[in-house]
Structures are given as C-alpha cells and as structure tokens.
UniProtKB/TrEMBL annotation:
GO terms for molecular function: NAD binding; UDP-glucose 6-dehydrogenase activity. It is an enzyme of class 1 (oxidoreductase). NAD(+) binds at residues 8-13, 33, 38, 86-90, 127-128, 161, 272-275, 342. Keywords: NAD, Oxidoreductase. Residues 328-454 form the UDP-glucose/GDP-mannose dehydrogenase C-terminal domain. It comes from Genlisea aurea. The active site is at C272. Its EC number is 1.1.1.22. One of its GO terms (biological process) is UDP-glucuronate biosynthetic process. This is UDP-glucose 6-dehydrogenase. PANTHER family: UDP-GLUCOSE 6-DEHYDROGENASE 2 (PTHR11374:SF64), UDP-GLUCOSE DEHYDROGENASE/UDP-MANNAC DEHYDROGENASE (PTHR11374). The keyword Oxidoreductase applies. NCBIfam families: NDP-sugDHase. One of its GO terms (cellular component) is nucleus. The lineage of its organism: Eukaryota, Viridiplantae, Streptophyta, Embryophyta, Tracheophyta.
Length: 482
C-alpha cells in the first residue's frame, strides 16, 4: 500500500488529502500538523474549517485510509510521498519584509523530513512558494541525506475556499512539475498515477519545476488582476452613470475575455491573492525587473483604493460623519461559504469606520466573535469620546464600538446604515422592508457585493449605494463625494 503523508492540516492540506483518500482507497493518507487543537478538531465532529461537502468526505474516510495526527515524525518516516502544505505567509520583518514569502515553516518541515527519513521519498511542494524554492529544498534535503534519494515535485493547489471540494473533484487542471531527469520523470509519473484515479489524463499537466512554481503565482496574479480591473471600472461607472454589472457582462461576453471573475466588489481578500502578488513583486525586483514589479503592484494598490473608497463613500453619504452611529456589518468572511477572515476587506472597512468612531454591529454566519475581535484588535480605538449625537440604543451595542451578533435583523435594528461585505446567500433573502422599519432614518445601505436589488430597496425608502451602480441623487449631489 502506498503511503502518503501531508505536513500541514490547513485549508489546503485537509480537503486535498480527504479527496485523495476518498478517490484512492488503496492509498493510506496521514495528515499531520504541529497544532494539537487543529488535529483534535479534524478528529472530531466539529472540523476546524467550514467548507461545504467536506464533513461528508471526512466522515467517509477517517479511520479507514485517512488519519489526522500530531505524530509528524512517525508519519513522515513511514511515507513514500510527503506533501508539504504548510503556511507561507508574507514576511513581516527582515529582508523582503512586507513582500517576500516567509519560508520558515517550509524550511523547518524540510529539515524534519531530512532528519527522520530512512528511505527514498518524493517530496511534493503543495504550498505556494517562490519560484526556485525546490532548488533550496533540494539542498536542505540532500545535504542531510545520509544516502537517501529525494525527488522534489511542485504540485501547486488551485482550489478556492468555499468551493474546495468541487474544485478538487473536478479540477480545471492538476499541475505537476519535476526535474527533467529519468528519476524526476519517474517521480512525476508516480504522482500522476495518484491523481489519475479521478482526474482525466488530459487535465494532468506536467512541466519543469520552475514553470509549475511560477504558474501558481501567475494564475493568482491574473485572477486578482481581473478583479482590480473591474473594480477600477466601477469607480469610473459611478462617475459617469454607467452600471458596472452591465459593463462587465458586455465585456465578459467576448469569448477571449470570458464571463467569470468580473464581479466588482469592495475588494478581494483571502490568504492568497495579496500574499502571492507581493511575493511575485519581490521576485521581479530581485531579478532586476522593476517595471514588471510595478505593474503587478498596481493590482494591490487598486484593491486598497477600492476598500478606502468604500469607507469614504459611507462616511461622506452619512453627512460626513459616522461618529456614534450604529452601522450593521453584514458579512465578515472574505467570501461566502467560508469562515476564513484572512485579509478580508471587512477588516479594513471596519477599521476605517471605527476610525471615524462608528458603532458596529457585525453579523457573519460562520465567523466567531473571538475571531472578529482578534482581527480588529490591531488598532487602538478612542473609547472615551463623549456621545453627542443620537446614539444607537446602548442595549444593542452594550456601549462598545463593536458588537458581534448572531442575526442580521438584530445587527440592523436601530442602525443608521447597513454595509454588505460578504455575499452570503442568506443576505439575498432578507426581508428588507422589515429591516427598513427597524432602522433609524434616513436609512442607508451600502452594498459592497452587488447582491441587492437596488430599485426595490430605493422603493422601500433606503438611500442605496451599490458599488459601480448609478448613484442616488442624494449621494451624487453631496459636495464631497468620495
Ligand atoms: P493554513 O495556515 O490553513 O495551514 C497550514 C498548517 O501548517 C497549519 O495548521 C500549521 O500549524 C501547519 N504547520 C506549519 N508548520 C508546520 C510544521 N513544521 N509541521 C507541521 N505542521 C506545520 O494554510 P493553508 O491556507 O492551508 O495554506 C497552505 C499553503 O497552501 C500556503 O502556501 C498557501 O499559499 C497555499 N494555498 C492556499 C489556498 C487557500 O485557499 N487557502 C489555496 C491554494 C494554495
Ligand atoms: C484564490 C484562487 O481563486 C484559487 O485558485 C487559489 O488556489 C487560492 O486563491 P480564494 O482566495 O480561496 O482562491 O477565493 P477566490 O474565489 O479566488 O476569491 C478571492 C477574493 O476575490 C474574494 O474576496 C472574492 O470575494 C473576491 N472576488 C472574486 C471578487 O471580488 N470578484 C470576483 O469576481 C471574484
């Protein structure tokens, strides 16, 4: 029986290995992690991540050919193929801080593999890493090899959160990069056979190592670039009276462009896009390509612009101040169908509003109060400012600047405005008449995800702002529109 071990039981390691176990009953899969709480959760009924369809897959395989363990060394020692799916965040200090990928976790995983291995192994880069990482990993492994042979493969993951199970079951492609030697080709073939259990062969692409590593960064950069492009257009739509949904529909009808990933929004979030583009920017700079670096950096700049533009629009629409006004935040996760808040635009929007002394009431169906508090705790707030304006009812905010509630109606009660920051399906079905009646007047709604029916809400009485849509006369006529 082939044995696979995956180091890192996160958003990628967990679901990816669960699908391999489901589709390859003849393979034993162990997912290991240094985090005891994460592994306990994987072994419980309350999985550590929310991902539609994941529970069923894990329940079907766990204890049969899928195991979650903190005994990292034992499972690495026993494995024929070791996937490394540890986190590779942006460096926060030292050389390349704020841009380069932090490979501390990766390096420590590689050193541990070198320490415990007693037999030849295929080591698979599943994490997103800078191009040429395989060369560095090869050096770590071979310098400590004790005669053991390693083949490094790059097998980047293209799943998106919220649709991970479907993406893994029916991937557009699986990419495997390896050394162009006979041992390298053999290793590529071994990994290809794992995926061939359920992925059609023409969707399994094989390339050299550097192409595979770079393709992952390139794919994320291209995807994020589409969002920044349509978001840049959304600002121009608001200035001219064009409607960004109509523009993106018309643009996407061109088969060379295609309709997907053209939704204007309050900005992209998630653990990957910003991190991977910054990483790409750093690699370009290190390779003496400042113009190329600047080109990709612009994608991030537009994303930051879009978030601050949204905050400015809220503040300027509400008489240029949100101080002590209750604002309901609907959605905190970076997209629907996930509880992940990494780099969510909600953090910047909430911090911007708190900076203007708003009182927030936040509701997200999958994000806990603890998580929201952690995410927002980076700022020092001015808690002592006296209340001059009509405050939102203290019973609903508890006198705090941020309150987390478990119901959208509760969040909106007595609020001056509503911000929609995540496109959860349940927000489309809300009774906005009921919400309007429970709010302070004039009642504002700011849709950062284009999910509401603007005309319907205007008829109810709301002053509506929806990104990239023609502006309400109320907002258009303001002296200092954002
Ligand atoms: P994550 O933070 O959810 O999981 C990483 C796990 O690795 C953590 O549980 C951590 O405890 C563990 N870990 C770190 N060092 C370890 C070590 N030395 N030994 C054992 N365990 C260790 O991260 P993620 O979202 O799963 O991302 C993992 C990688 O995949 C990143 O490089 C990311 O860029 C890439 N990726 C992520 C996504 C996504 O949607 N999240 C998609 C594609 C690729
Ligand atoms: C992304 C890539 O899609 C995936 O291939 C890669 O493996 C990891 O990074 P993820 O970050 O999980 O996946 O989600 P994605 O669906 O790409 O959304 C990222 C952000 O872009 C979200 O905040 C989303 O709301 C936003 N987005 C997406 C838009 O604003 N408009 C769109 O049209 C699409």
């Amino acid at each position: 029986m082939v044995k696979i071990c995956c180091i890192g039981a996160g958003y990628v390691g967990g679901p990816t290995m669960a699908i391999i176990a489901l589709k390859c009953p003849s393979i034993e899969v162990a997912v290991v992690d240094i985090s005891v709480s994460r592994i306990s959760a994987w072994n419980s009924d309350q999985l550590p991540i929310y991902e539609p369809g994941l529970d069923e897959v894990v329940k079907q395989c766990r204890g049969k050919n899928l195991f979650f363990s903190t005994d990292v060394e034992k499972h690495v020692y026993e494995a024929d193929i070791v996937f490394v799916s540890v986190n590779t965040p942006t460096k926060t200090r030292g050389l390349g801080a704020g841009k380069a990928a932090d490979l501390t976790y990766w390096e420590s995983a590689a050193r541990m593999i070198a320490d415990v291995s007693k037999s030849d192994k295929i080591v698979v880069e599943k994490s997103t890493v800078p191009v040429k990482t395989a060369e560095a990993i090869e050096k770590i492994l071979t310098h400590n090899s004790k005669g053991i042979k390693y083949q490094i493969l790059s097998n980047p993951e293209f799943l998106a959160e919220g649709t991970a199970i479907q993406d893994l079951l029916k991937p557009d492609r699986v990419l495997i990069g390896g050394r162009e030697t006979s041992a390298g080709s053999k290793a590529v073939q071994t990994l290809k056979e794992v995926y061939a259990h359920w992925v059609p062969e023409d969707r399994i692409l094989t390339t050299n190592l550097w192409s595979a590593e770079l393709s992952k960064l390139a794919a994320n950069a291209f995807l994020a670039q589409r969002i920044s492009s349509v978001n840049a257009m959304s600002a121009l739509c608001e200035a001219t009276g064009a409607d960004v949904s109509q523009v993106s529909f018309a643009v996407g009808k061109d088969s060379r462009i295609g309709p997907k990933f053209l939704n204007a929004s309050v900005g992209f979030g998630g653990s990957c896009f910003q991190k991977d583009i910054l990483n790409l920017v750093y690699i370009c700079e290190c390779n003496g390509l400042p113009e190329v670096a600047e080109y990709w950096k612009q994608v991030i700049k537009i994303n930051d612009y879009q978030k601050s533009r949204f905050v400015n629009r809220i503040v300027s629409s509400m008489f240029n101040t949100v101080a002590n006004k209750k604002i309901a935040i609907l959605g905190f996760a970076f997209k629907k169908d996930t509880g992940d808040t990494r780099e969510t635009p909600a953090i910047d929007v909430c911090k911007g509003l708190i900076g203007d002394k708003a009182q927030l009431s936040i509701y997200d169906p999958q994000v806990t109060e603890d998580q929201i508090e952690r995410d927002l705790s980076m700022n020092k707030f001015d808690w002592d400012h006296p209340v001059h304006l009509q405050p939102a009812s203290p019973s609903t905010t508890g006198g705090k600047k941020v309150q987390v509630v478990w119901d959208a109606y509760e969040a909106a009660k007595d609020a001056h405005g509503i911000c929609i920051l995540t496109e959860w399906d349940e927000f489309r079905k809300l009774d906005f008449q009921k919400i309007y009646e429970s709010m302070q007047k004039p009642a504002f709604i700011f849709d950062g995800r284009s999910i509401i029916d603007v005309n319907k809400l205007r008829k109810i009485g709301f002053i509506v702002y929806s990104i990239g849509k023609p502006l309400d006369t109320w907002i258009k006529d303001l002296p200092a529109a954002a």
